[in-house]
Structure formats: structure tokens, C-alpha cells
Design goal:
By secondary structure, the chain is mostly helical. The chain has 16 helices and 5 strands. The chain is 59% helix and 5% strand. The strands form 2 sheets. A 3-stranded antiparallel sheet has the order 1-4-5. A hairpin with a 7-residue loop joins β4 and β5.
Length: 330
């Protein structure tokens, strides 16, 4: 049942109740009827109080409910982004293109639109404006993850939409695979409305030159209450190294060319690993590497493991450099 229907029913009950007030002065109940009226008025008061309390509880828990309801969508967004970097291609290119056009052009009106359709399209325009308010990386992350039929007006609750909007921003400025830039430029050539859109032109500039991407708080903003709860839970926990950890995501198969971004002595250590050498001897040579995988736990308050594969002797050199102590052996 939609919120609109509930609001309509509640409003109808209120109007009927207010209409009854004027009738009481014109009736002369019997003693038994007075007792019944008193009983019914008490039950009506209790029901009204229950409705009031229920609405208050729902309002206070709306953030948590939206977070739980959006879990599957958030996981999908994370998976789509990881899949793009691993394979260098869009998993759902049609949805990506349709999203970009919808977000920057908006739904097209028709003379045959009903009032309900007009309302939905206007809601979609407002949501598109909010999405465009994300960083360029946030816009791309949204476009590849959620079909317009999912997030458009009348399809997704505003609380869930806001929750996804707050969560979609990548932690860091992204260097997207070429397929993203190529698709965005082809869309501009294909869509007249995008050619005439100054906002889309600015968006493209930021994608072409990552240095032009605005620097802002790029991660979700959930609620202060959630942050305090997570901080409190972390403060009360055992040492993070002793916590039970369950893996939720694993990232690997990064572009091999990114080795140039790794500082010494780690770069040489990785290049001396058997895995790196094996990858480079494959025919054709692999364009990706599994030498620096990262593991994300299910618990968002726990740390992420970022590991590197390195040569055996190089590992001892790294231990000496950083002064690591032997903890256990077998």
C-alpha cells in the first residue's frame, strides 16, 4: 500500500470525525447509549494515540529502514563498479546510456500523459537534478547501477532514493576505463539535447580531465546518529586484529600499468613476485594483475585488508625496513 493511499484514508477518517462533532448537540441518547458513546470515544482516542505513536516510531526509524531496504541496491552498485574496472567494459551499456540521457534531458512529455504520469515525470526530473548534483564519478556510478525504471518517480521510496544518493559516491576520484569516456562522447554526438546542454559539457570536461573534478566530501552522509552508533560500537569492541571478520567484497585484477603509481620499495618487490612475472609471460600478455587485491568485510566498521604479492627475498627486506616482529611460526 502506498503512502498516498494511507494519507487519503487518514484524512478521510479525520474529516468524518470532525463532521460528527456537530451532531452530538442534536441527539438525546439513552443511558445505555451514553455508556456506549463513552466506550467508543475512549477506543477512538486509544486508536488515535496508537496511530500517532506508530507514525512517530516509523519516522524515527526511517533512516535505518531505508538502509536495510537499499542493501541489495548498494551491493549491486559496488559490484557494477568492481566489474567495470576488472573487465574494462560496461555490464549493462543500454541502461548506462538511457540513464545518462534521462538524467541530463529528463523524461519527454506527451499530450496523452495522464495526471499520474505527469506527476511521475516531474518527480523523475527532480530526482535527476539531485543525481546531477553528485560529483561526476557519482553520476557515472549511479548511471551504471540503477535503471531509470528503478529510481524514477513513483518507483522507489524517497527514503531509499536518498539513502542510495548518499552512498553512491566513490571514496576517491576515479580514473575510469576508456569505455566510459567513449560512450559519453558518442552519446553527445547521438543526442541533440546533450549537444546543447552546458551542464553536460561541463560534466564531460571533468571526465576528460580528472583534475577538473570538484573536490568535495565524496562519501555517503547517512545520519549523525548512525556515525555515533558505529563509533560507540568500535570503541567497545576488541582489538580490530582480533575481531571476527567475514569477507563481503574482493577487488583484484587492476590494470598492470598502475604499477607505476606504486612507490618504492613496494614497486620492485611486486615486480619480483612470481605472480607478476607469470602474468607478464602469458600470451597475449595480461593487461591486469592480481598482485594487490583488497578484501572488504561485511561489517562496515571493520578495516579493509589491502595486500601485495612480492618476491620472497623482497619480503624480508620490507620486514627489515618497517621493523616487523615475528608473531608466530609453524
Amino acid at each position: 500500500m502506498s503512502a498516498t493511499i494511507v494519507l487519503s484514508q487518514l484524512k478521510g477518517l479525520l474529516e468524518k470525525t470532525e463532521h460528527l462533532k456537530g451532531k452530538f448537540s442534536k441527539v438525546y441518547p439513552t443511558n445505555d447509549q451514553w455508556d456506549t458513546l463513552s466506550d467508543l470515544s475512549s477506543k477512538l482516542s486509544e486508536a488515535a494515540k496508537a496511530v500517532q505513536d506508530g507514525i512517530r516510531v516509523l519516522k524515527e526509524s526511517r533512516s535505518d529502514r531505508a538502509w536495510k531496504e537499499s542493501e541489495e541496491h548498494r551491493s549491486k552498485a559496488q559490484s557494477c563498479r568492481g566489474d567495470l574496472f576488472a573487465k574494462g567494459r560496461l555490464k549493462q551499456p543500454v541502461i548506462f546510456r538511457r540513464n545518462i540521457v534521462t538524467m541530463f534531458e529528463g523524461p519527454r512529455d506527451s499530450k496523452f500523459d495522464s495526471e499520474d504520469i505527469k506527476f511521475r515525470k516531474e518527480s523523475t526530473r527532480k530526482r535527476s537534478e539531485l543525481i546531477r548534483g553528485l560529483s561526476p564519478d557519482g553520476v557515472i556510478s549511479w548511471a551504471m547501477a540503477f535503471a531509470p525504471t528503478l529510481w524514477g518517480g513513483g518507483s522507489m521510496s524517497s527514503d531509499v532514493f536518498t539513502c542510495l544518493l548518499d552512498d553512491i559516491e566513490p571514496e576517491l576520484v576515479q580514473t575510469w576505463p576508456p569505455v566510459i569516456r567513449d560512450t559519453l562522447h558518442m552519446l553527445m554526438e547521438d543526442e541533440e539535447s546533450l549537444k546543447k546542454s552546458p551542464e553536460y559539457q561541463e560534466f564531460l570536461k571533468a571526465i576528460d580531465d580528472p583534475s577538473q573534478k570538484p573536490v568535495k566530501d565524496r562519501k555517503r552522509r547517512r545520519t549523525e546518529e548512525e556515525s555515533e552508533q558505529e563509533k560507540s560500537a568500535a570503541d567497545d569492541a576488541l582489538s580490530p586484529s582480533n575481531e571476527k571478520r567475514e569477507m563481503k567484497y574482493m577487488y583484484t585484477n587492476a590494470p598492470a600499468s598502475s604499477i607505476s603509481k606504486m612507490p618504492e620499495p613496494f614497486r620492485t618487490a611486486v615486480q619480483n613476485s612470481r605472480l607478476w612475472k607469470w602474468e607478464r609471460t602469458q600470451e597475449p600478455e595480461l593487461e591486469t594483475t592480481g598482485c594487490w587485491p583488497s578484501l572488504f568485510p561485511k561489517d562496515r566498521t571493520q578495516d579493509v585488508s589491502f595486500t601485495i604479492w612480492c618476491g620472497h627475498n623482497d619480503a624480508y627486506q620490507l620486514i627489515d625496513i618497517f621493523g616487523s616482529q615475528l608473531e608466530m611460526s609453524s
